[in-house]
Prior knowledge:
Oligomer: single chain
Strand content: 35-45%
Amino acid sequence: MLGTGSCTTPVLSKSSYESIKRFPSVVAYLLVLALAGVSSLKSDELGRVPDKALVRTVHGHATCSSEGQTHDLTANMVLAAGVTITTGPDSYVYLDVNGTTSSMRVSADTTLVLKTMDRVGPRHEGDTETMLDLQVGSILGHVPKLSANSRYEITTVCGVAGIRGAADWNVIVTQLGNGQYEATCEAVKGAVVASAPVSSVIRTKTLHSGEAWTIGLEDAVPVQKQLLHKQLKQIKLMIEAAGTPGAGFGGPQPGQAPAAGAVPPAPAPRR
Length: 271
């Protein structure tokens, strides 16, 4: 799916990755430091509030689950942190994540956990912390702007991708069988910093527009122009969906069951 050429790709099993996470705390600390020194928001910071995700479009079939409850995902559902989104074959979802922090296309056969969506300060000017866990599948994202103290990371079984400033990006996790996974991080436009433990060494790659890195390989490679053009077109459609008049944090539609972890709609203002 990326540039031409063939190679043998080192992969991590899920059990191996869990073992790495149980190493002394210095290993985990180094992995965080490798993501270019972005300072995260403190949990006890004054004014820190949880934000939400908004479902814009559902094509095909997708579900959301939290605390043992599962519901079909439909447009205009509002989701809180902790929700797991699962898409079926030939399906996709357009999603606004952490308020207006980013827009995202969750592709078919994907499992994604919205782990953290927090904000400090004004909605359009404050700092944000967005932590996503991509378990399998692929997500294509658009981040229009991040403050210097904000943190936006996509965790996979193989490593972590961090978004810097404004960027369009793509992260793919493929299950190869026998408990093995392969992860690829791509900067469609802008910069993405990817970091992962490879052969017991923390390796970091800064990817620029049109570059991708399959974790475990030596070098980043250019993305094929045809694929890059397709991704940019999908991002444009996603942004247009986010700007649809009338779309907003309105909660479920009439007759629709609320999503697991969903936030109930606010009462309409009195006129």
